[in-house]
Amino acid sequence: MLSTMISGAVYGVQSHLIQVEVDVSQGLPCFQIVGLPGSEVREARERVKVALKNVGVKLPPMCINVNLSPADLPKNGTMFDLPVAVGIMTALGKLAKEESEGILLLGELGLSGELKPVKGVLPIAREAAARGIKRCLVPIENAWEGALVREIESFGAANVQEAVAFLRDKERKKVVPDVQEYVVVPPDTEENLDFSDINGQSVLKRAAEVAAAGFHNLLIIGAPGSGKTMLARRIPTILPPLSLEESMEVSTIYSICGLLQSAGSLKTTRPFLHPHHTITGRALAGGGRIPMPGVISLAHRGVLFLDELPEFKRETLDILRQPLEDRQVQIARSVGSQCYPADFMLVGAMNPCPCGFYPDREKCRCTPYEVKRYLNRVSGPILDRMDICVEALPMGFSDITAQGKEENSKTVRERVMAARQRQESRFAGTKLRFNADMGPKEVERFCRLGQGELRYMERMFSCMQLTARAYHRILKVARTIADLAGSDRIEEIHLAEAICYRQSDRKFWQ
Questions:
Q1: Whole-number Cα distances in Å, 117 to 54, 158, 260, 293
Q2: Which range has highest mean pLDDT (11-20, 129-138, 175-184)?
Q3: Domain 2-181: which CATH class?
Q4: Which of 50, 58, 463, 501 has most Cβ atoms within 10 angstroms of its Cβ?
């Protein structure tokens, strides 16, 4: 007898529905799975046989064939256990065919018949809803992920017995709570980070505000203890929360990596990734035998903070060159090519020399060769992609002990969100979100300069020996500064401030 179940699989960040076809017939006893199954899928034979035996379903000595269609797509993961088990029971006549029609089945089986959580439920549920599937049955720990998709009803089961009971009586298992329970998540207050914790460093904080408003890349150079890391960790506190569309994008990536289960909720705050400088290129960009998202994809719509930038391997840093331009990373392997989103805000922090005190020659004992060699660990193309470069000056005793009231994150975030609203209105009807997203054509359209401003930029272009990329980045930063000031046009004062944010790199890399 033949039965067909609906399941799904994830390829990169794309999902596909998979038909699990099960045929039980007379012949030599066997249990085989075809359709390009990976090792985890092939091992499902043993898990399903033992799990069904332990819940009272004995498999007769017959030939069991399972086909995963379409057969030309590689199948990996453990989410096919449940549909295979239900398919076998349906083919044996223990369940009616109509009882499992139109239901998405996902889940890993334990040997006791327990249903264990799996990765990628959210993107698969979204694909199923787009294909007209109205219900899904998943492990109870994953049920809330399915419920995040408004067009599909999500049901959870703790074991095979509960799954069978649901299929026989679809009203027996209650639908998990509404999506809103998982969208409204309180901010992380464990560290209680706030901009008001930073005394002084007004230039640094202004640069961070401009970077946050336009989603610009930021590089901070300064001596040890000047507040570089302290500032970078507080940048997420001035970023606006994710929109529902962005939240679903980020949550999809985290679901594929199995990180959404530990979060227990939809991602509503912008990611902040802070990898150690020993990270490998594959961990940063993604990859593996079966390509999986890397750190830069986990930082999508959020912040990627690279502390001690020159300590990273140069070849590792250079991996960022293409993602910073294209806002995505493409991983090609023998099993196929996957494209992952990588639209992140890069924040780097570094010392100006090995000891950290250059150009203060009273403290710095590094030779010019050592300084140059240290700075050259960051390649020119990476440096050219940093929209804002600012120096963190050493703090004096009066700065540290000052009792003046500093602006808190909420006040700064309000200005950032106001600037973001101006950008949304400007880019309405386009695919652009922030000023940093603009390409040369968009810069020409949205960053037009008056005659006086053009003459000013002509002098600066020649004086600073700017590249075309650097010139466009100055205009984009100036557009953000104008947005923060509530100005409809870019004025010379906005251009001057944007150019100041390119002076620090010239000071050290000359």
A1: 19, 10, 11, 20
A2: 129-138
A3: alpha beta
A4: 501
2-181 against 195-428: fold identical:
no
How far is CA 264 from each of CA 151, 176, 198, 282, rounded to the nearest angstrom?
20, 13, 32, 27
SS3 11: strand
Q: Where are the domains of the chain?
A: 2-181, 195-428
Ramachandran angles phi, psi of 258, nearest 5°:
75, 15
Q: What is the CATH number of domain 195-428?
A: 3.40.50.300
d(CA 365, CA 275): 30
- By three-state DSSP, how is residue 127 classified? helix
The closest alpha carbon to 352, from 371, 336, 333, belongs to: 371
d(CA 290, CA 256): 12
- Which residues have C-beta within 8 Å of that of residue 4, sequence separation ≥ 6? 19, 20, 21, 22, 87
Distance between CA atoms of 24 and 32, rounded to whole angstroms? 11
Instruction: Summarize pLDDT for 156-204 with one digit per residue, the tens.
Output: 999 999 999 999 886 554 445 454 555 544 444 445 788 888 887 888 9
pTM (2 d.p.): 0.86
| Nearest CA among 74, 67, 69 for reference residue 289 | 74
Contact 297, 343 (CB under 8 A): no
User: Whole-number mean pLDDT of the chain?
Assistant: 88
